[in-house]
Amino acid sequence: FESKLPGLEPSIFGVMNRISLDAGALNLAQGFPDFGADPELIRLHSEALEEGYNQYAPMSGIYSLREAIAEKTETLYGASYHPETEVTVTAGATQALYTAIAATIRPGDEVIVFKPAYDHYEPSVKAHGGVPVLLQLQGPDFRIDWVAFDAALTASTRMVIINTPHNPSGTVLSREDMEMLETRLRGTNILVLSDEVYEHLVFDGQEHQSVARFPGLRERAFVCASFGKTFHITGWKTGYCLAPELLMQEFRKIHEFAIFCVSHPAQRALKTYLENPDHYLELNDFMQRKRDLFLEAVASSRFTFTPAAGTYFQLLGYQDISEAPDTEFAETLARDKGLAGIPISVFNRNRQDNRQLRFCFAKKDETLKRAGEILSQV
Ligand code: PMP
Ligand code: GLN
């Protein structure tokens, strides 16, 4: 039997979780909160179970939740998606991303991926015979080099994957970046896969530049979002995909046979919870305060940083502390000092190592202060 993904290495999240657990370390590695979800949301989920929403939901998601998603998108980004034909509820953003790739990528299709990149995209593309074309972005601002982008476009380019706010760098794409992409893709049949799971975590008064805001991108895009990331419920594995009708038809052909439908009680709870926009609008301030608390706690350390503009990840550089490769530094920090982070080289092209670790600041204040104490003693 020939592997479809030869040489695929174990996920860095699994690796760091295991080291962290063995060492009894504070875990700021994998991206999930260490505080509970809103009790109101938990209550809504329990009520849905009690009320008997325990059988299959409709294939594309319950209609009222799709309506709520469409309304939110229209209000925030001025884009109208029809709940019947252009919105599908998925098992997290992961299943939305995978399904969009499975529905559209054929052997030999080239897919542009900006590095560092979340580790999902490349294996999913390769599993369908696609060829990832990797464009490395450089810190501290991780801006897209449009000359390199133009040079990477070929007759085989089928898709561009973007992720804003960006995991792992914590940067966001600007309106100008989106317009540059829109201009370049005009008149082509290149698709866009837009991973916007951190859409509600954008700081310092900036606005999230959803693909949905740009008609020339929207018409060719799958937009993927995550209730897990937005509402601190990563374990519920719920999210959604938005796409124009023709693309969504193809998406649903895969969705139907990969999963058919998503947790029914969770969808009931989310539908009611979305009725109050404060539930997502207040997240920017909530998480910005966490970022600032974490940065204050590391201000007197020897780590270097540019404050994250979005997401719940902060990169810290240890160039002034050690010359060790980042995987080794991350392991030593977890085992000897009791704090786990993610080495960034695993997300880079050719494992480029800038001696930076990623830390998740979606944590209780006391966890962030403790992490700051540990980092200040390194
Ligand atoms: N995309 C990015 C950039 C992420 O960080 C994550 C969460 N780890 C996902 C997708 C997956 O989201 P979900 O948990 O909803 O599947
Ligand atoms: N998205 C999360 C992160 O970047 C982890 C998800 C996963 O474990 N695959 O940390």
UniProtKB/TrEMBL annotation:
Domain of life: Bacteria
Needed co-factor(s): pyridoxal 5'-phosphate
SUPFAM superfamilies in alphabetical order: PLP-dependent transferases (SSF53383)
Keyword hit for Methyltransferase: no
Record-annotated Aminotransferase class I/classII large domain positions: 26-371
Keywords associated with the record: Aminotransferase, Pyridoxal phosphate, Transferase
GO CC aspect terms: cytoplasm
Protein name in the entry: Putative aminotransferase
Native source species: Robiginitalea biformata (strain ATCC BAA-864 / DSM 15991 / KCTC 12146 / HTCC2501)
